[in-house]
Amino acid sequence: MTQIPLSRRTILKGTALLLASTALSRVQAQGGGKRLIVAADSEPRNLNPAIVASNGVFFVASKVIEPLAEASFAGEGGLAPRLALSWEGSEDGQSATFRLREGVTWHDGKPFTSADVAFSALKVWKPLQNLGRLVFANLEAVDTPDDHTAVFRFSKPTPFQLIRNALPVVSSVVAKHVFENEADIAASPANNKLVGTGPFKFAEHRPGEYYRLERNADYWGEGQPKLDEIVYRVLPDRAAAAGALEAGEIHLAAFSQVPLTDLDRISKVDGIAVYSKGYEALTYQLVVEINHRRKELADLKVRQAIAHAIDKDFVVRTIFLGYAAASTGIVPKNAPEFYNPDVPVYGFDVAKANALLDEAGYARGANGVRFALKLLPAPYFTETRQFGDYLRQALAAVGIDATVVNNDSAAHQKAVYTDHDFDLAVAPPVFRGDPAISTTILVRSGTPAGVPFSNQGGYANAEIDALIDKANETVDVAARTELFRQLQREVAEDLPLINVAEWGFITVASTAVKNVSNNPRWAVSSWADTELES
Amino acid sequence: MNRAFRLLRRRAISSIPVLLIVVVGAFLLLEVAPGDAVDAYLLSIGGGDPAMVQALRESYGRDQSLSSRLWLYLSSLARLDLGWSVTFGRPILDLILERLPNTLWLMGSAVALAFTLGSALGIVAGARPGSARDRLLSTGSLALYAVPSFWLGLVLILIFAVQLRWFPTSGIATIASGKQGIARAVDVAHHLVLPVCSLGFIYLALFLRMMRAGMAEAWRQDYALAARAKGLARRRIVLRHVARNALLPLVTMLGLQAASMLGGSVVVESVFAVPGFGRLAQEAVAGRDAPLLTGIILVSAVIVIVINLVVDIAYGILDPRVGASEERAA
Q: Fewer CB in 10 Å around end: N or C, chain A?
């Protein structure tokens, strides 16, 4: 038997060789082909975007299942055709006609027709989808005069402006033949093994590890897709995404999965680029929700004082590190069709805030405190929690003693939106292209308890309610737009809530990834033109 | 063997009330936490309308009373059915069986690392108490023990994954690599090095310190003195007499630490994105998935009971007096 002299040096050499061999196999495994590896921070329970229209679902599913139209920087009316080539609403608001793309096939080879659109609209979007239930509430029938025309018929006049603005979010088309025999579509296993028309086919999901999508060779887009595969690697820890990017294990992290505080450092790393574009149609808003049941907060002067106590520019600079804009009202600047800059603004003015509180009759006590409040920051983002801490300090400066109560997501939802056990809350609602989709619900009265991101502060203003109802049935685009401009004015005057800032997310990607952030919903669009340079 | 069987039977019977208390306690614990599975789900999808909220509550059984839900759960448990997870839309048993092996690998490797290396270094330190080697190891282990595992994990990632690129930053295996058999085992082992280190090092420090203290104590015992008086070689005294006796408290500690290591895996699995049991528990809490969390806690309790049983058997082997006393007690 040969004897191998075992010295420290031999052991070290052996270890180094072993490490080198495993490291080599890793690079080979991940670097081959045009496989884009992306960080994902969640695994939605239901991956069907026709049922769950949320960013977490779209992030993966939008590559497999396509909408009728997608948001676009250059397209007419901010839209680019996908499964529909054109769309038109009737003057009376009773119908909308979609001309559909020809020669499109589902991933299982069957042809895509207007019957799929009719099925999706009537059996999925209207009865099951979280946002479609509102947008298509009055949808009565969908006529299919031929395979490539779908005519939506409404029981009441429905503004086409709303339908059009909602198309990227609510119109993900699913295959009729996949779902038509399901007794319960919402519980179908097909919701997690998607069959679509998109540039990528759903290949596999290993829970807790990754999703894998494969190139659809029969995609209708010429020369698309440019990638062979997209792999979503599940990385729940935010610090993990930055590390994986730097180590070259992933190519891209969207939705600010790399924390803002890491951006400065990571932007200096060779081969990594930071993009703040591509989220214009996914604007999140930082809002102070107010419980109007509380006597002090029911007083407009107190609400105005709180608005004056907040230094919005400081919030943008310090909490969002500049990756945000100060808000003026309930519609963000990123929605130029509706945005109204001509509203009352509440500049940072501590003296004025103090004067308003004095006028309202809440003088400082011996300890300098006027009254105490319970403040609940939403836990979903670092920034909402940090703003909660800032707001407590800002309120202290005007003599309001706020106690911050930090909860996890479910507890926050129950405390604020079900039990109304709060005085002030910090919320991050999303503007979804049209104020009627998820903005008016923040100020309209009458929403029962338990519905998140809705007016649960007990605010009721008949004028504002009437304005919203009128806009919901106004078909004329100019008139409807004007009603929403008026709504912004009235909301800014009466301050049922305080809009502080609005922000999009940040994408951090390897410079090898091309065509990043080239539309206003990029992270949740199809990525048919996304390339990976080898 | 007979003794082990009797011990097993006695433990199995005494475990039933323990498990029942654990199950009911876990179920109620999540019930008293504010918010339910519907709240968590609604937030994850960005909201919904009132009719949808109502429909969800009915389909999740949230419209039923707490007692009827608990009864339903216990009766399905009696049929060995762990139930259905509302957060994942899958049977709980499938989820647990899918995630458990990853955690067992992580925990098992961390225990092996901590116990073997910890006790070995403890022997080195305790062989000559007060020596420079002893002082170095004692100080080093104290520092290691004071470091939180998540911080250690991040530092290890930064050095060995981001800078040196020796190990992957996270995950349990190379994604979609198609590796099978030994290649996959090597791949998993490669991915587990950093998580095992960050979970195991704290316990390594603990075992090292216990072993050292035990040895210091054993050196003062009569049998150590007798062995020295007999003129036995120092190495033989250390290994056969001092270390063996000092090992007993470590074995006890091994059983006690199993539960805390399961808890520690929650943090380490999150930092390293290991799809294990701990992360499943975290997701169950965030989703307010009472049956899933209860199932996880139930299985964890069974694991802890089994580990303690194994420890008791091992204890009997290491110290025959313990076995004899249990026999008498029985």
A: N
pLDDT digits (tens, 9 = 90+) for B252-308: 888 888 778 888 888 899 889 899 988 899 889 888 888 899 999 999 888 888 888
Q: List, in sequence order, every residue forming a beta bridge with A325; answer none if it has no partner.
A: A502
Handedness of CA B159, B164, B169, B171 (dihedral sign): negative
- Please spell the DSSP secondary structure of A27-51, one letter per residue: HHHHHSTTEEEEEE----S---TTT
Residue A493 pLDDT > 90, yes or no? yes
Task: Convert the pLDDT of each residue in B42-57 to its tens digit.
Answer: 888 877 778 888 888 8
B231 contacts chain A (CB < 8 A): no
Residue B326: predicted pLDDT: 55
What's chain A's average pLDDT? Answer: 92
Non-local CB neighbours of A245 within 8 Å, separated by 6+ positions: A39, A251, A252, A253, A258, A266, A272, A508, A510
Q: What's the distance, CA A341 to chain centroid?
A: 23
Of A356, A314, A298, which is closest to residue A495 (Cα–Cα)?
A298
Distance CA A192, CA B216 (A): 60
Nearest to B73 by CA among B304, B290, B311, B281: B290
Q: Which residue in B47, B89, B177 is closest to A453 by CB distance?
A: B47
How many beta-carbon pairs below 8 A join chains A and B? Answer: 179
DSSP class of residue B164 equals S
Taking a C-beta distance cutoff of 8 angstroms, is the pair A391, A315 a contact?
Answer: no
The values of phi and psi at residue A326, to 5°, are -70, 140
Distance (Å, rounded) from C-alpha A50 to C-alpha A123? 10
- Residue B52, chain A, CB below 8 Å: the answer is yes
Give buried/exposed letters for A110-143 (b at 16+ CB in 10 A, else e).
eebbbbbbbbbbbbbbbbbbbbbbbbbebbeebe
Considering CB atoms only, which of A30, A243, A413 is closest to B35? A413
Pair type for strands A69-71 and A79-81: antiparallel
Facing residues of A424 across strands? A290, A375
| CA dist., res. B135 & res. B145, Å (int) | 15
Tell me, what's the pLDDT at A28?
37
Q: In chain B, what are the domains? A: 1-87+287-330 (no CATH), 95-277 (1.10.3720.10)
Distance (Å, whole) CA B191 – CA B214: 35
Residues of A in contact with B174 (CB under 8 A): 25-26, 29-30
Residue type, A57: V
Nearest alpha carbon to residue A393 among A298, A287, A315: A315
The answer to whether the Cβ–Cβ distance between A130 and B47 falls below 8 Å is: yes
B32 touches chain A (CB under 8 A): no
What does DSSP assign to residue A186? Answer: G
Q: Which two tokens stand for residue A134?
A: 């509102």
Contact predicate A496/A457, CB 8 Å? yes
SS3 state at B181 = helix
**Rounded CA separation A497/A290 (Å):** 6
**A167, A71 contact by CB (below 8 A):** no
Q: Which two tokens stand for residue A449?
A: 């308890």
Q: CA dist B27 to A33, A227, B295, B303, Å?
A: 48, 46, 9, 19
CB burial string A204-227: b at 16+ within 10 A, e below: ebbbbbbbbbbbbeebbeeebbbb
Nearest CA in chain B to A230: B176
Asked whether the beta carbons of A524 and A55 are under 8 A apart, the reply is yes
CA–CA gap between residue A38 and residue A253 (Å, rounded): 6
**Phi and psi at residue A517, to the nearest 5°:** 60, 35
Q: Which spans in chain B are helix H? A: 2-32, 37-44, 50-59, 66-78, 92-127, 132-146, 149-156, 181-219, 222-229, 234-236, 244-271, 277-286, 290-318, 320-329
- CA dist B5 and B327 (Å) reads 12
